[in-house]
Design a protein that fits this description.
The protein has 237 residues and is of the alpha+beta class. It has 2 domains: 90 residues, Disulphide bond isomerase, DsbC/G, N-terminal (Nuclear Transport Factor 2, Chain: A, Roll), CATH 3.10.450; 138 residues, Glutaredoxin. It is built from 8 helices and 11 strands.
Length: 237
């Protein structure tokens, strides 16, 4: 008799365990099973009764039973705000003070009170365009983290710049004037390897990528007015 009860007891335990899960946890498990990957967070979306699922650096939306998945942006018609972008900014933010500043090229202009960090590839055309625009910034400290994601030549140039006597000048000369860095590249370049590791951990897959003191990231060569506005409004957390 006891043996016959065991399956029933196990079934009741499983049912109780499932019932104890929150709605978000149920959605998480169902999505992970459907996609075959890890889900980092599940929260109730602000519209349509959907759940926001954050996975692999992307947001998707599902219904409560996970019978339907929606890939795309939610937009508030009244405010014209892209709700998905707003959430991604928060979900992909970092703690600015956690950046490995010793591995960056530091440039201080004016009082240096405003702070900005960029991840750039020496051969990135968008980075060069951004760099020329950012020459107009004043009263700012810029930390540039070199990541050679565009290939072997990018990695070589990053090493040459890092090994130069004046990293900031060599970086500016190359990015603005196209002046080839000195050939020396045999110094300790472990910092560049760590920059790549950090970029992978934080899913920095494109250059340039900008970070502000509030931790928010902006991918791509943002226009100068947007950078100025963000530098003036961002507050450290």
């Amino acid at each position: 008799m006891f043996k016959k009860c065991i399956p029933l007891l196990l079934g009741l335990c499983a049912f109780a365990a499932q019932a104890a899960l929150s709605d978000e946890e149920k959605v998480r498990k169902a999505v992970e099973m459907a996609l075959g990957g890890k889900v980092e967070s599940v929260t109730k979306a602000p519209a349509l009764g959907l759940y926001e699922v954050y996975s692999s650096g992307q947001i998707l939306y599902v219904d409560e039973k996970v019978t339907t998945m929606v890939f795309g942006a939610l937009v508030d018609v009244k405010t014209k705000k892209n709700l998905t972008d707003e959430r991604l900014k928060k979900l992909t933010a970092i703690k600015f003070s956690d950046l490995p500043f010793d591995h960056a090229i530091k440039q201080v202009r004016g009082d240096g009170k405003r702070q900005l960090a960029t991840f750039e590839d020496p051969n990135c055309g968008y980075c060069k365009r951004l760099h020329k625009e950012m020459q107009k910034l004043d009263n700012v400290t810029i930390y540039t983290f070199m990541i050679g994601i565009l290939g072997e030549d990018s990695q070589k140039k990053a090493k040459q710049i890092w090994c130069s006597a004046d990293r900031a000048k060599t970086w500016n000369d190359w990015m603005i004037q196209g002046k080839t860095p000195p050939a020396k590249d045999d110094c300790d370049t472990a910092a560049l390897d760590k920059n790549m590791q950090f970029a992978q951990t934080q899913r920095i897959t494109g250059t340039p990528t900008l970070f502000f003191v509030d931790g928010e990231r902006i991918p791509g060569a943002a226009p100068l007015p947007q950078i100025e506005e963000k530098l003036n409004s961002a507050k450290a957390k």
